[in-house]
Amino acid sequence: xxxxxxxxxxxxxxxxxxxxxxxxxxxxxxxxxxxxxxxxxxxxxxxxxxxxxxxxxxxxxxxxxxxxxxxxxxxxxxxxxxxxxxxxxxxxxxxxxxxxxxxxxxxxxxxxxxxxxxxxxxxxxxxxxxxxxxxxxxxxxxxxxxxxxxxxxxxxxxxxxxxxxxxxxxxxxxxxxxxxxxxxxxxxxxxxxxxxxxxxxxxxxxxxxxxxxxxxxxxxxxxxxxxxxxxxxxxxxxxxxxxxxxxxxxx
Length: 251
What we know:
seven-stranded parallel β-sheet
């Protein structure tokens, strides 16, 4: 069970090689987390991530999970919850895609949408049901500021995150009063493998900064977390700006 400060003893990460997720796991292990499940495609990268967390003193296990194979989600995740209560689920998988390529290759665009949205809906509902059955827990969903306003530079990725964000907010409303807490995390540009080679956006952040914000959000039982916090005002202005103005912005 989580302590009075919201630190989970057990953690399930969907997207077990995510840099943000692993930074969060390291931070939580340093506080109190003792059991970690890393769900992802069975690769050497997943095993390396697990080994790194074990060195910090956690009991770490891996589970084969493919975001694109929604038919397998139930059978993949049910055994995790059968092992014991999970205090926190971190939904951290997603792909950025390549906007220029994806516009010309609809199949590639669909893969972005299926991974970031469809896969998340499937896994999110399965985990929410399990958390509700145990009567407690937090579901933390990594969204993005890109979902706040469709922009020419990344509207395929942004639209998938917009769908995920709306889904997570609605799920949080549906679970209100059940003992299950849903928290949506909206980072800006994060310096990571996924963004390597891309021009850095203003107010860029790091996986470690996002991890810190997640920990603080858990402690406060926040429903929405912006990273950095100043992006909330920036995106509010962008969201309400006329489309003619947005089209002229270098974003």
